[in-house]
Amino acid sequence: MVEAEAQGPVVEIGRRYLEKALDILAREYGRALEYARAVVADGLGDVAVALLGGRPIGAEIFYKIRLAVDLCVHYYVAVLREYRRRGVGKILITTVERACKSDAYAATTTEDNAAAKALFGSLGYVGYRWRELDKKTRDVLLRATCGYDDDMIFLKGPAPREVAAEVGDAERFGHRECYLVWLGVRRADV
């Protein structure tokens, strides 16, 4: 358990919090939670939950992947609407950064998500549109993050080209955690 603020949220990390995290993510995202569940169930990801008075108010699903450097990916981050703009997202992200102890950190979001862009920017992340990156860098990072071409990536640490200089585990991860999960979701929708 990590004390976040005096009498404020406490962040706990562990896979045992998956269902609490998924509940928050479902309330705030309402979709695509199969990806979050899969990365944790497959033993690759972990869970951080922000608790206030024992009540879950925010959650993050994250994982670490080896590319040219160790990359910690903030896969899903959500704070209950009534607790937003109180620093809970910052507490989650900085706690996960300390837990990951990586060379680089990444998150993806849609270009119109002003809150996420401001949050990650305030923590030293630099935003890139996928089309701004060269093809090799873009392909490696898309696979490593399960990103979409119309999203943006936020990176903290080395430049994108340095992070993606080696494919590392991106190909295997992208196939297993992105493509195969997508196929399962698609088949369920049919």
Automatic annotation (TrEMBL):
<feature type="domain" description="N-acetyltransferase">
    <location>
        <begin position="8"/>
        <end position="147"/>
    </location>
</feature>
<dbReference type="InterPro" id="IPR016181">
    <property type="entry name" value="Acyl_CoA_acyltransferase"/>
</dbReference>
<dbReference type="Pfam" id="PF00583">
    <property type="entry name" value="Acetyltransf_1"/>
</dbReference>
<protein>
    <submittedName>
        <fullName>GCN5-like N-acetyltransferase</fullName>
    </submittedName>
</protein>
<dbReference type="InterPro" id="IPR000182">
    <property type="entry name" value="GNAT_dom"/>
</dbReference>
<dbReference type="GO" id="GO:0016747">
    <property type="term" value="F:acyltransferase activity, transferring groups other than amino-acyl groups"/>
</dbReference>
